């Protein structure tokens, strides 16, 4: 059976390659210039580990972005936020590369990097010389005191919680942002996701109403009437927090950061869920989410959390605008270990790692 699963994955990978062929052609590896920049980490100088991405230019008809000091407030920008740390660096760089490559107006894309180490700014600038971006240092202490121990160590990385603080970190003039995880690639024009109608909701995301919502919280949560009453006036559905469109103005107005933090405080004493950064989002937003097409989060490509590296997943039926390697396996690790899953071949073209 295993080969059949692998084979069907391979077939969908090939089909997708064909579908994406025109855009893949615009990728010129020959244009990738060796980067000679240096990054300073803990006082040690490292040569940049990443090739310079090709320069992506606007198609005809794109809006001109202002070049003044307040550029970040230009209303024509498409704002994207992503975290950048050493563990997922290769994934974050590939994600940004994929966004620029498939965007018809790449010069309108503004990246907000939430970093664990400010030295990463040099790396971004040398890998994407034309990119409009800003780097924000995310103070781990903000969440460390709010986090309790959980099943998976990876979920306890403070940077996982940086998405909770976008509304506070980003400039007040930035009123909407797309938040993306670091283990995904975008294979469609990000401006389509950007122009999602949130219908008055604060966040938009693909929703999964058939998923068993009960299992995201403990029996203790459901048996505590005060806690579980939070869902009494809504029909909550699971959504993945790795791809979200956020109305930052509404978030600030209604103080959602504090609401999320309040649930994290409750978790410390009452143990109302097992996972890390996701459940507080579900508690605050599930049932109040603007639905986005599932093609914008083809999730689970990382495979099974328990079975680990060798478990490959296929795509979900329907359109494909974003491929997400959520789960325990990451494409760069599987490629390096010479045990890639068939769909990892769709991540590889965006990889800029290695000189
Ligand atoms: C949903 O999950 C809960 C907790 O894991 C379980 O008790 C329940 O039987 C599940 N419901 C369905 C319909 O599978």
TrEMBL record:
Its main location: membrane. Its EC number is 2.4.1.-. The keyword Aminoacyl-tRNA synthetase does not apply. The lineage of its organism: Eukaryota, Viridiplantae, Streptophyta, Embryophyta, Tracheophyta. Gene3D superfamilies: Spore Coat Polysaccharide Biosynthesis Protein SpsA, Chain A. Pathway: Glycan metabolism; pectin biosynthesis. This is Hexosyltransferase. Keywords: Glycoprotein, Glycosyltransferase, Membrane, Signal, Signal-anchor, Transferase, Transmembrane, Transmembrane helix. It is an enzyme of class 2 (transferase). InterPro entries: Glyco_trans_8 (IPR002495), Glycosyltrans_8_dom-fam (IPR050748), Nucleotide-diphossugar_trans (IPR029044).
